[in-house]
Design a protein that fits this description.
Layout: E1 2-17, H1 21-30, E2 33-48, E3 52-56, H2 63-70, E4 78-83, H3 93-96, E5 99-103, H4 115-125, H5 130-144, H6 159-171, E6 177-181, H7 189-206, E7 209-213, H8 217-223, E8 226-231, E9 234-240, H9 241-248, E10 251-258, H10 264-267, E11 272-277, E12 280-286, H11 290-300, E13 303-309, H12 313-323
Parallel strand pairs: 3-7, 3-8, 5-6, 6-7
Antiparallel strand pairs: 1-2, 1-4, 8-9, 10-12, 10-13, 11-12
């Protein structure tokens, strides 16, 4: 059953144009002219209940605008959206009790109060009884390993602990649809891992649907089998993460450890050299030349070890953003 249904969704913003100089300022004041900015253009997709889907795109690609339309914060210009059976921008109580929107570095907890006090306020907003609130706070706090920090003021918590508390506050009403916009932004590696583990456990325990944006590709590779890629407001890929690699990465990385140190210019005669460190080198080789190149390296150089891998997912996503257009759309 589809938890999120998006059909030809678009958002257009009118932006005032101001000419330079005093005359431009006067004209802008009395007779403004506008141009239209297409933040999101004709986007369609469905997400089934219980799926964790990555939502990728460069800054300004339209990710946050899309999440705001899905959560009902802004009204779409055209197209239709249904989330958990509701039309988001109507902001019905039944809808709001089933969704949550978490934006990294956006704080909802009160800075000088203990986290527990803010959580009780959130519970009251959602109409939870004291007993229900207590049980949910206890359960989520144990999942997040933050139960011993809830009596401290928010300002005394580390960034990772504050993010955990923010997640607890956002999930206290046990939503079934989670919109997460950079939830690990600015966190150290250990805190990022903890948040990922929590999201995976929450998804498994409550069968929650999660749409996740992140610039940390480790978040995506750890949690998402399916990804959506948006570029300049258009959806250019919807499918398996491995399929994204196959589609947009015509090259493979060849990692070689040599018996001796070879000069870089000698190695460059075989393929594009990405990195040389001591007696090890990393080559980028096209699929068509892979067999020939590997054979030449093995036959002409003294090799201790050789492995072939896909390029880092970050590099592949970068290629998608640089070349992405509507014609490259792939669906699962």
């Amino acid at each position: 059953m589809a938890s999120i249904i998006v059909d030809r969704l678009s958002k257009v913003y009118p932006v005032a144009i101001k000419e330079p100089g005093f005359q431009g300022t006067l004209k802008h004041f009395f007779q403004r002219t506008y141009k239209e900015i297409n933040a999101v253009r004709d986007v369609s997709f469905e997400i089934q209940a219980g799926e964790i889907v990555g939502f990728l795109g460069a800054n300004g690609a339209g990710k946050t605008t899309t999440l705001k339309m899905l959560s009902g914060l802004i009204h779409p210009s055209t197209g239709t959206v249904r989330v958990a059976g509701h039309i988001p921008f109507k902001r019905e109580t039944a809808f709001l009790k089933q969704i949550t929107l978490v934006m990294g570095q956006k704080q909802q907890l009160i800075w000088d109060l203990p986290a527990l006090d803010s959580l009780k306020i959130n519970a009251a907003v959602y109409g939870l009884s004291d007993r229900t609130a207590e049980l949910r706070i206890q359960e989520l706090a144990e999942m997040l390993s933050i139960q011993h920090k809830l009596t401290q003021p928010i300002r005394k918590l580390s960034l990772g602990e504050r993010m955990k508390a923010e997640l607890l506050a956002a999930l206290i009403h046990e939503p079934q649809v989670l919109f997460l916009d950079e939830p690990t932004l600015g966190l150290d590696v250990n805190a990022q891992v903890a948040v990922r583990q929590f999201l995976r456990e929450y998804n498994q325990r409550f069968n929650a649907t999660i749409l996740l944006t992140s610039h940390y590709m480790a978040d995506i590779t750890a949690l998402c089998n399916r990804v959506l890629v948006i570029n300049q407001g258009q959806l250019i890929y919807d499918g398996n993460l491995n399929g994204l690699v196959d589609r947009f990465s015509p090259c493979r990385e060849v990692n070689v450890e040599f018996k001796h140190i070879y000069p870089r210019h000698k190695l460059e005669a075989y393929a594009e050299v990405r990195e040389v460190e001591g007696a090890s080198a990393r080559f980028l080789v096209t699929q068509e030349l892979l067999t020939k190149t590997v054979s030449q390296i093995l036959g002409e150089l003294e090799v201790v070890d050789l492995s072939i891998t896909d390029p880092p997912i970050d590099d592949i996503i970068g290629q998608v953003f640089q070349s992405g257009n509507a014609e490259t759309l792939v669906t699962s």
